Amino acid sequence: xxxxxxxxxxxxxxxxxxxxxxxxxxxxxxxxxxxxxxxxxxxxxxxxxxxxxxxxxxxxxxxxxxxxxxxxxxxxxxxxxxxxxxxxxxxxxxxxxxxxxxxxxxxxxxxxxxxxxxxxxxxxxxxxxxxxxxxxxxxxxxxxxxxxxxxxxxxxxxxxxxxxxxxxxxxxxxxxxxxxxxxxxxxxxxxxxxxxxxxxxxxxxxxxxxxxxxxxxxxxxxxxxxxxx
Length: 229
Hints:
Layout: H1 4-15, E1 17-20, H2 28-39, E2 43-46, H3 53-63, H4 67-73, H5 77-87, E3 92-93, H6 101-111, E4 124-128, E5 134-138, H7 148-166, E6 170-174, H8 185-199, E7 203-208, H9 210-214, H10 216-222
Parallel strand pairs: 1-2, 1-3, 6-7
Antiparallel strand pairs: 4-5
């Protein structure tokens, strides 16, 4: 049985997506990755476009900025690469080998924007365990202290990613307390986020400690109703 990465590779081979890597001229890892994408038939790497009115227009449409300012923005390779995705000249932007995460997110926000209903960007790890269990863990690198609404949005985005990668999405909102075993501002925030996610149609529990979320025996002892998140 294929794991999530293997399934993703198989799906990629059927799409032949166009990937733009704005750091490819400066980083050997990017060049090596482009070579592997081609050799394995996963995607085609496209060159970073020169600045153009069409790319600047993508920033104007998304951010409602002055056209002259948009033109200056696409002078930055990251923003220009994101604009290529926005106008259909590329399907995927891969960056971050050299640029900080915040700059990559900023570029995508300027030219592409967020999906409908999403208030803020977020990230996740795809985790694979011995025995074949797989899950995603979010948000690991972007949101420092999200409020309840933002947590619910992160859950929505993460559930969509889990559906796409794993075929199923059951969400556990982690906390230092399980159910009503503890109190505090963060516990209340997690509880509110879980309620909002449930109201939005997600299969979600929380607040719950990680051991109860992942282990059915511990879950039964703590009465969390989790164990298989």
